[in-house]
Amino acid sequence: MSSKASQRRTSRIRRHTRVRKRVQGTAERPRLAVFRSNRHISAQVIDDTTGRTIAAAATVEPGLRDKTTGNVEAARAVGWLVADRAQAAGVTTVVFDRGGFQYHGRVAAVADAAREAGLEF
Q1: What is the pLDDT of residues 23-60, one digit of tens each?
Q2: 9-46 in b/e burial notation, b at 16+ Cβ within 10 A?
Q3: What is the Cα–Cα distance from 95 to 29, expressed in whole angstroms?
Q4: Count of the separate structural domains present in the chain
Q5: Residue 61: inside a domain
Q6: Per the domain annotation, does 44 fall within a domain?
Q7: 83 lies in a domain?
Q8: Which pLDDT band holds residue 1 (cuts at 50, 70, 90)?
Q9: Residues 50/27, Cβ–Cβ less than 8 Å
């Protein structure tokens, strides 16, 4: 990894640490965490009190992998899928954790799609 890429990653992890000081997922209101790489995007609904993942979706899954995985359309599909799985598990409200990424583009698309699918945050 080049030094500039390493510095970007370190900066993102620092931002994520600052966000995680305040954003805590509970059983009543779990955390919707988003991770974005250059090729894929994933989202998890996490109960931090027990350390359990309630629902998850990612573009590496067989159903979503057939299409292009690194664009806004794929991010919307992940948002819809994670919201459906969370509602099937009985979750209706979440707190959003952008993972140190800028709330823009694919990260915002996941959030908007999850809202459209019925999650409240």
Answers
A1: 888 889 999 999 999 999 999 999 999 999 999 999 99
A2: eeeeeeebeeeeeebebeeebbbbbbbbeeebbbbbbb
A3: 7
A4: 1
A5: yes
A6: yes
A7: yes
A8: low
A9: yes
